[in-house]
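Input/output pair, single chain:
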Amino acid sequence: GNKITSIELPHTGLIHFRLLTDGLVGYAWPKCVKSGERSEFRVHSVEEYGLELWRYGKEKEFVKRIGTFDEHGPRATMQITPDGDYTQVGVQFNKDGYHSSILGQSIEAPERSGLYYFHAKSKSGSEFGFPWVVAPKSPTCQLAVFASDINWNAYNSFGGRSNYIHASSFPSTPTINSRLELKRYTEPEHRTYNTEEYKPLSLDRPDPYNHIPFDEQLSDPIAGRQGCHMASAEWRLLGWMEQQDIAYDLYSETQFHFEQVPLESYKALLISTHPEYWSRSMYVRLKRWVHEDGGRLIYLGGNGLNCEVEFLDDHRIVYHNTNWSHSEPNYDADGTLNESRMDR
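Output:
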């Protein structure tokens, strides 16, 4: 879509002009809240769209219709992104042209904890779903479960970067052909990560990998690669737990990092699927809770707590991959074998 950008001339260096593809994407911000708190729904659409809220448990449960969204101005539901590498600073949807409170787009989190999804559907039939983690105001049972949202963000390549595509920094020119340009395909002895410095990746972005087709049900096979280790797979576990009448309170990893999880009030914590990326403070707090406070950890994941991350603020995360290879042993300068990227 179109936008207006101002620059001062003369200008040295490249200018990365960024335009969004016509289509339908969205996300909640914040992506993880407690019951009673509010999030914005930030949706990019070039046409009228409807929005509903659903809860994903043992079945997909309709919660409410939020509304139909359209504007007098042509294509006024289209979003604008910053120029340059917005994987570092966020896409900043709902920033330009949303200054009036009348145009505010937010919703209060339901009372019941769980994994919720916004269902957006455009007038022409396009569909896009995006997750919303709702934690309880206070503990309701003895078991806490973490959604692996730091891992979701690591794989999110919206805007041209993820922790697997241009992990260290944005390239000076757009990637035209992955097989001809990305090091993982062009270098015979490619190391997964080959630098010590990595630019941050923002949580403030849509995450297409976490879209779940609206007609997909709990017992359906997960079609595709990314869904097998992200929200779609985590929903399968949560749904199974509800089928077995196992009560749980759902939180996100980021909420745990920011000390918004009263872990001392729970007997057990369950982490699952692919909890690869944790901050050191999260790791230390969990280890103390298990070894000193009598907490119980239920680990149902793979490749967990493998790499340290650093939060620069509430949405920018640095993934400290170090100079690391997934295909050969990794050693410190003194010859000590590293078990994971947590050993940096």
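Residues 24-319 form one domain. The longest strand covers residues 60-69.
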